[in-house]
Amino acid sequence: MNSLLEFLSLSDPNVRMVVWGTTLLGASAGLVGVFTLLRKRALLGDAVAHSILPGVCLAFLVGHSKAPYVLLLGALVAGWLSLLSIDFLVRRTKLKADSVIGLVLSVFFGLGIWLLTSIQQSGVASQSGLDKFLFGKAASITSQDVSMFGWVVLAVVVILLLFYKGFKVLAFDEDYARAIGMPVRLLEFLLSTITVLSIAVGIQAVGVVLMASLLIAPAAAARFWTDRLSVMLLLAVGMGILAAWAGAFISFTAPSMPTGPWIVLALAALTVFSMLWAPRRGVLGRWLRQWRYARKIALENVKCIEDLVPTGRLDLKRRICRHRRKIRLFK
Amino acid sequence: MPTSAIEVHNLTVSYNQRPVLWDVDFTLPEGKLIAIVGPNGSGKTTLLKSIMGLVPLSGGFARLFDQPLADVRSQVSYVPQRESVDWDFPARVKDVVLMGRYRPQNLLRRLTRLDREVADWALEQVRMKEFAQRQISQLSGGQQQRVFIARSLAQQANLYLMDEPFAGVDAASEKAILELLLQLKDRGKTLLIVHHDLNTVRQYFDWVVLMNTRLVAAGPVEEVFTEANLQAAYGGQLTVLAQVADRVQEGGFPVRKKEVKI
Amino acid sequence: MDAIWIILTGTLVALCCGLLGSFLVLRQMAMVGDAISHAVLPGIVIAFLLAESRDSLPMLIGAAAVGVLVTVLIEWLHRVGRMQADASIGISYTTLFAIGIILISYFTRQVDLDQDCVLYGEIAYVPLDTWILSNGTSLGPRAVWILGGALLLILTFIGMGYKGLQLTTFDASYAATLGISTVFWHYALMSTVSLATVVSFESVGAILVVAFLIVPPATAYLLTDRLPVMLGLSALFGFLSAVLGYGLAVATNGSVAGAMAVAAGFWFILALGIHFIKKRLHAFPARRKLPESYI
């Protein structure tokens, strides 16, 4: 309990950085994740997360620096390139989307690993920071990182607010958006850019592989609770932040524990909880409704039969009563 | 005594607590060419699928030749909608037709010469022999449909259930398919066919099953395919209905839509 | 000699994955393959803790079972939970992978696996871990033997089950009407993919498994329209990727697994070029062919 209070007081500057950093990441991933999920492109985010690695490595090689903005630029370019190649292959070949995503993901990532290991072997000084793009190092988030995350989140939020209506129509029905003359290509470009941006900063906390979860899970969990986009966005942000805090707290109490995987587990727990308990779309609610429905039909059937029974037949009436009681008790 | 080919009793199928088929009840005789007709979303495909045991039933049952499906599987053949598969699959026409010879019993063994001969014969029946080595993605819609029918013929069944074999098919293929269906009927086979074109029902079919989630009517075309029944099946869709009423009275040939090629 | 062992290991991985991956690509389940390859991690760690050794049979089977479990989980989230298919894939495998990472960091002393190895394997160390008989004779790297055994199993599976896999991949509901169990073939394929992933995992890590599951089959798919040829070509491209990848890695002193993935991508781009040239050449005659359906 004490450790929880100590954690929440944010008195430890290290903890403060981790908490603020992961909070910002959780929030931005939650926001853009809603749109990736609604547009049925959840796994595209996974591909982008993997594809960012070679961009980061090349940016490091070319720019000779580990400055966050240089690496972010490389990440942005590589992420965009992966999206373009996926789009090209799906449209121009008989390969299906799932194969194309897997293909681009693994080849880009292979390229990233190859570059990363080559850089490490070549003994270029101070390359060690690149590792965090692979596994994520929430524990080593610096104030410089946090300020960059802050700018990214600000950019994401501003773009979302400015083009909210457009994104909404796009997520709902792309063809319709085109039909009513919306600048679909511009909207897609903006949405993809903020997605790549969010992923590029997000992988620094949870790593390449687990980024998909940060993107998908808050949105998927939020989807169970509501049918309204604005509510879903708020819920997704809330879930992202909650999970980020949970992850940060666990690695605060047990320092050997990695933050990223715990954030993912927290998200999984939130998702399963939502899936079971959400009132309208949840599993338990649905079962309850199905059960009530079946019971209602059974009772109505009994009523129908009862109406057919001639007035004098008490024996039949009694049997029907017994049957009804059985339904009420057991069904 | 002629047995019934298909007997469906109280068949109910629902999805998400919404009934797709509700209490459908009918018996169909052997040796007839039978159409299933109804508006979009009226459960025609689901009816075929539930007879073939492909969707879980919420109630009722279907019997084929007075037996449960499992006992007469080898006598029943199903032709799914053409769009239900990916035609980019790496296979040639012959490979697909040969699939009609697969059985649970011979799945781990090689196909025999007889199997290959039957497949050749089936291809000949749909007039696609010269396409045997053709990649399936290079076929037109009508040709793909004929390949599916050939695959079904290769099963050498007695009862054929076909889902929209005339949909998106060019005139030549439609003619070839129709002739084939009539031939099969003459050989005593039973054919139950989901049909979307009300204009051709009278020309092509002996029997008709009219439905809209519930059964509207089932029986010989001349008795059942009436304006009143169509009204019941198609309800509010007045434009369709007006057209159909005209056609029914005229008995004339409508202009058929040509297949659109890209 | 080490070079040959490494290339041989890479080739065996490529063959195991490429042959099965062909069916995954055709079934549009490539990302399920991706999910399996990540999800076996906790299985490997747990089996490692229980069996306290690498490469024991119970470990392989236990880890492969977790791979099959993830397909069940995906199915469950999608069917019972009514979650979008892509979201259920993304959530299931990340969760299992996260559990794997947590287990590794918790049992870091007992488990001889580190995070790097999980992602891109240690194929360079394969020749060091040899199988030595009690009389002292060395039979070569252990990984090669295990992968060879797995390949034999996979070849038998595809050889015997070719028709079942082909039919249930092309038209599952038709297969069901013939009385052929689609569920059986689905899980048979998933189990074999899972096994292939587990045996390949230590040598090449999660990502190269995905690369070999998807890239060579996709390359082959572009070049042929016959299933047996596609299987053969994906094996060939797998082998070529292993060779080229090793060369690349040696030349640049980088990760062998990563370079092999890059090589696979190189062959894919080459095939893509051929595909487009072929398409252009055929474009004109194909257009002329159209009216024949109206004869």
Overall description:
Chain A contains 15 helices and no strands. Chain A has 331 residues and is an all-alpha fold. The two termini of chain A are 45 Å apart. Chain B has one domain: Rossmann fold (3-Layer(aba) Sandwich), CATH 3.40.50.300. In chain B, the strands form 2 sheets. Chain B has a 6-stranded mixed β-sheet with strand order 5-6-7-3-8-9, sandwiched between helices. In chain B, strands 2-1-4 form a 3-stranded antiparallel β-sheet, with helices on one face. In chain B, α4 (113-125) packs across α5. Chain C has one domain (2-123, 137-276): ABC transporter involved in vitamin B12 uptake, BtuC. The chains are: A mainly alpha (331), B alpha/beta (262), C mainly alpha (295). Chains A and C meet through α3, α5, α11 and α13 of A and α2, α4, α5, α8 and α9 of C.
Q: For the record, what CATH class of chain B applies?
A: Alpha Beta
Domain count of chain B: the total is 1
Largest sheet of chain B: 6 strands, mixed
Relevant CATH superfamily of chain C: ABC transporter involved in vitamin B12 uptake, BtuC
Tally of helical runs of chain B? 10
| Portion in strands of chain B | 15-25%
Uncertain runs of chain B are 250-262
Number of strands of chain B: 9
CATH topology of chain C: ABC transporter involved in vitamin B12 uptake, BtuC
Shape of chain B: globular
Tally the helices of chain C: what do you get? 10
Radius of gyration of chain B over all CA atoms, rounded = 18 Å
